[in-house]
Write a structure and sequence with these properties.
Elements (H helix, E strand, L loop, with lengths): L6 H14 L3 E2 L24 H4 L9 E9 L15 E10 L4 H15 L7 E6 L9 H10 L6 E4 L1 H4 E2 L6 E12 L18 E14 L5 E14 H8 L13 H11 L8 H19 L8 H19 L7 H10 L10 H4 L1 H35 L4 E2 L1 H11 L3 H10 L3 E2 L1 H22 L9 H20 L6 E6 L4 E6 L6 H16 L4 E7 H6 L13 E7 L3 E4 L13 E9 L4 E9 L1
Helix pairs in contact: 3-4, 7-8, 7-10, 8-9, 8-10, 8-12, 9-12, 10-12, 12-13, 13-15, 16-17
The structure holds serine.
């Protein structure tokens, strides 16, 4: 029987396979990590599992399976080939201190060859080659040989390729083994082998053996437990299964978007048009999902990434001659095809009007900027003419590119019309310089790392629960958490409330929290069904996104919240709570910054 291969089918097949192996399904977490200031976006399935990889017990047990929406801004420049994306879905199975390499390898093999039907001869694998700190992973290679992969198709590579994590500077990490499917394309060079990015070998699955914790000093310490963390990119596996090899954009996940772009631009998906079409399809899909999380375009953090994705799409659209307003049509197509995925994203339909309006507004703003840019361009040419300079410098071209979104091609075209040339090399140099700066900035973002659950951060986490309970007592039950961000120095808590807090209210909240700290209330955790937690009045921030079993933290009888933890054992440890700032953070929302003093 020929199965209909879709992202949804792959997910169902994967879940069924691992459920049979006693895994429980975890929910798809938000794209914006909560209670974690170290990363802007969820970038892997393991991301929401960090506390459990570090040893916290998971309410669903030690074997988990799931699908996670992810976003990787680090790959933005690679988008345009057939198989790199900013937004993508990742399937994964996890062992939290339960099974280990042997089972992981044998199940991966079974699933790839039996369930997905990849022919065994087309699969090759890589394992960790070892270095000063961690030894060569001969054990895993041995298991691959046992399932039937000949030695010639088992490669050993170093940290660049076969080591995963931590996401930031610190956190869980370990050697990995990666599985590749040979597309049958010719080798790009004599050194072409799995790990080469030419598109001959497509990486379909990664099994990470997470047994280390990288600490602040860069040392690798053994974790409390040995975990398996696997990740399979949905888009590329669907493409391979459909015989589309290295072109994810020819699968039903993307093809309606590509068709829409082709219709708007009047160009067909071939040759040089493929790249801009792919970038638009990738970026606007990502943008739709980001806006769905409540983000709007801006100049900082999430908003900046969103703005960049939308503006880059419009720029690429220019290359295709798409000049009138078109972002809405493509965004609507993303939402119209949401059934291609599992059932996780139905909310996008409900949010359609809002999402599309946000994207349209950004397009409007950007087009106004572009018009200003054209005027700027005219000014530039007339000043060059005056100085009898026949060359547009890379700096000027890059300024037009960065500030007004003018692709180099467009500047070149305009220049040519007037008998000028553009210093392209200089332009590329400027662009690289800029990329280096933004990459360094992105790295800075991950400085602290996902595993930074220091004692101070844990204290702030408990203080956040106290603060929410106090706000609800003083201001009323309409107060709901709308976001939270914790660093070593302070907590930040966003919540729904229509007006600024009066000094008296601030004082009352502080006093109430401090009273609960002084009472040294015990902090207790219980695992229960989500329904039960709601019956018992537990606050739950991510409505409708919880697994059947959840952890509930009780602070005396003052606070009760569904939460992954960890928390302090009793409130007496927290110190003195002080609100240092209260401000608006969007309509109907307030933001509090607070510190714990010794
Ligand atoms: N964390 C690993 C990855 O992202 C495996 O899930 O590839």
């Amino acid at each position: 029987m020929k199965k209909k291969i879709t992202a949804r089918w792959l997910r169902d097949e994967y879940f069924a396979f691992f459920k049979e192996k006693e895994h429980r399904v975890i929910p798809n977490s938000p794209l914006i990590p909560q209670d974690d200031s170290s990363a802007l976006f969820t970038s892997a399935g393991m991301h929401p599992l960090v506390p459990y990889l570090l040893g916290e017990p998971h309410p669903l047990g030690r074997r988990l399976v799931g699908i996670q929406k992810c976003l990787r801004t680090g790959d933005i420049e690679k988008v345009g080939d057939g198989f790199h994306h900013t937004f993508f879905e990742m399937l994964g199975n996890w062992s939290l201190g339960d099974y280990w390499k042997k089972e992981a390898v044998s199940w991966s093999w079974q699933f790839l060859t039996k369930n997905l039907g990849f022919s065994a001869e087309k699969i090759s694998v890589t394992c960790f080659a070892g270095d000063k700190e961690v030894k060569k992973d001969k054990e895993t290679a041995g298991y691959w040989e046992k399932v039937g992969i000949p030695q010639e198709r088992i490669f050993f590579l170093g940290r660049e390729d076969n080591w995963w994590g931590p996401v930031g500077k610190t956190g869980p990490c370990g050697p990995d083994t990666e599985m590749f499917v040979d597309t049958g394309a010719p080798s790009c060079s004599s050194s072409c082998q799995p790990g080469c990015s030419c598109g001959k070998y497509i990486e379909v699955w990664n099994n990470v053996f997470m047994e280390y914790l990288r600490d602040e000093k860069g040392h690798y310490l053994p974790l409390k437990q040995k975990n398996v963390d696997t990740g399979m990119g949905v888009e590329r596996v669907v493409a391979l299964l459909l015989g589309k090899k290295d072109d994810d954009y020819q699968t039903p996940i993307f093809s309606p978007l590509i068709e829409k772009i082709a219709e708007i631009s009047g160009k067909s998906y071939q040759g040089e048009w493929r790249r801009p079409m792919r970038i638009i399809a990738d970026h606007l899909r990502a943008a739709v999902f980001i806006v769905n999380e409540g983000i709007v375009p801006g100049n900082k953090e999430h908003g900046y990434v969103l703005r960049r994705l939308i503006r880059r799409s419009i720029r690429e659209g220019k290359q295709l001659g798409m000049d009138s307003f078109w972002v809405k049509a493509v965004a609507e197509e993303v939402i119209a095809n949401i059934d291609n995925y599992g059932d996780d994203y139905q909310e996008l339909r409900k949010e359609k009007t809002r999402i599309v309006a946000v994207l349209e507004e950004e397009e409007r703003k950007f087009r106004r900027t572009l018009d200003r840019g054209l005027k700027e361009l005219e000014k530039l040419f007339s000043s060059l003419e005056k100085s009898q300079e026949k060359k547009v410098s890379g700096k000027d071209a890059f300024y037009l590119y960065e500030t007004f979104g003018f692709p180099l091609e467009l500047v070149k075209e305009e220049a040519q019309k007037r008998g000028f040339v553009v210093d392209e090399k200089d332009f590329l140099r400027e662009k690289e310089k800029h990329q280096r700066v933004s990459q360094t900035a992105a790295k800075g973002r991950f400085k602290s790392g996902l595993a930074t659950r220091s004692p101070q951060i844990i204290k702030y986490h408990t203080a956040t629960h106290l603060l929410q309970a106090a706000l609800r007592k003083i201001l009323g039950k309409h107060v709901q958490q709308a976001g939270s961000n914790i660093t070593e120095e302070r907590l930040r808590f966003d919540f729904t409330h229509p007006s600024p807090l009066t000094p008296e209210q601030i004082k009352a909240v502080e006093d109430l929290v401090n009273q609960k700290i002084a009472a040294n209330l015990p902090v207790k955790m219980e695992v229960m069904s989500f329904e039960e937690s709601q019956k018992r009045g537990a606050l739950a921030f991510f409505k409708g996104r919880y697994p059947p079993q959840v952890k509930v933290y009780f602070i005396g009888d003052f606070s009760c919240e569904v939460c992954a933890g960890p928390h302090v054992k009793a409130t007496g440890q927290l110190g003195k709570f002080r609100i240092i700032k209260e401000e608006s953070c969007g309509s109907g929302k307030r933001r509090i910054y607070a510190v714990l003093e010794k």
